[in-house]
Amino acid sequence: MRLVLSITLSGPFMEQTGNPASAICAFSLADIDKVYKGSFKYQPESNSYWQEKPTSLDPRPGLCANDSMSLSEANLQFIADNPLMYETVQPLNGKPIFVLQQTELQHLELDRNLTEMVFYAASNTGKIYKLFYKDNKKTYVSSIYSATLDQDVIWSMKHHKGSVYVGTDTKVQQINVINCEQHRRVDFCVKDPHCAWINKTNLLPETERDLKCRDLAYIKDLNLLNEEEIYTHINYNLSEDTPYVDPPEKPKYVQVIKTTTDTIDLRWLAGYNGGYDQTFVFDYRIEKTSSWNTQEYNPDVSDKSIQTYQINELANGKLYEVRMCAKNWIGSSGYTSTISVSTASTGIHFILIIENQNILPLFNSKT
């Protein structure tokens, strides 16, 4: 199947808060061709609904003609009056193949050296995502590369052999995208079509047995590809053994449970972590100020469990705005709704402020 990939930066993929989001959609060339061979659409009046308009003109309006000067006036007028197709081209499986919150993807580059669908997506934060679209069903993140420590915008990107070349405002950089040795788990390894997992380390030279994930070219050079317990994306069941990975879910039921003169205690329910360990990010600022301060929390167990955290080093008796999100290796969730809460002027205040609900005082204790 021949596909067309496209990046979408707006519409339903923009969060209500206005934070950027990106979606990559795949379209079948057969579906595109079918729509362009279908009916056109038109409006009988400027305030009427769009209607279907078939045509029997020959040659069909919109098709390339050997001699455009020979086209009839009726054909040219039809094209001018009806430039839109009646049907729309739907993405494969009716949804994006990859969505990334709070990031703008700007460039796509296909790995043309593989028969599998592997492509690279460059972001406005200097990161490159190596993506594997398996069996026209699921997209796995094989690796993430940082093209620059300064998070420069990537303006151009080209893939050649085992590298991508990126251009920013300050430099051009080559990045190796075949680096299987970084993967320490079989489910991470086999999500990269360049790699294979060697479960029997005695198949390897003695000095190299600590690296089980290796480049497929290396495996082939050692004639190991048909050996038992050599796993690739072909013979390892990704659909069952590896969860679909993406950014974590947004934290739920965020509550303020206590404040002191310089702290705010929060409680929330963690969502699905996206297949990786997640970190919780807390943004806070004094009301009516512009810049956010940030603290992060890395719990030992964070998937679908109740969590608590104390934001500290705050000013006493001030009204703060607080919001939070979750992030993992892939990306970030959306932000929760902003909560307004005051630090205590003196003592400790035990309160309960629930996201999107009213303040419910429990009790107030002074020390």
Describe the structure.
The protein has 367 residues and is mainly β. Helix content is 8%, strand content 38%. The chain has five helices and 24 strands. The strands form seven sheets. It has a five-stranded antiparallel sheet with strand order 20-17-16-23-24, with no helix packed on it. Strands 6-7-8-9 form a four-stranded antiparallel sheet, with no helix packed on it. A four-stranded antiparallel sheet has the order 19-18-21-22, with no helix packed on it. The protein is flat and about 85 Å long. Residues 240-244 and 357-367 have low confidence and may be disordered.
Biggest sheet, strands in spatial order? 20-17-16-23-24
SS field, number of helical segments: 5
Radius of gyration: 27 Å
Quaternary form: single chain
Which features would summarize this protein structure in a list?
5 helices, disordered C terminus, 367 residues, mainly beta, single chain
Strand and helix map with partners:
Layout (H helix, E strand, L loop, with lengths): L2 E6 L12 E8 H8 L3 E3 L8 E3 L19 H9 L16 E4 L3 E6 L6 E7 L3 E8 L3 E9 L9 E5 L2 E5 L4 E5 L9 H4 L5 E4 L14 E3 H6 L8 E2 L6 H4 L10 E8 L4 E6 L9 E8 L6 E5 L8 E6 L7 E9 L11 E4 L5 E7 L4 E7 L2
Antiparallel strand pairs: 1-2, 2-5, 3-4, 6-7, 7-8, 8-9, 10-11, 11-12, 13-14, 13-15, 16-17, 16-23, 17-20, 18-19, 18-21, 21-22, 23-24
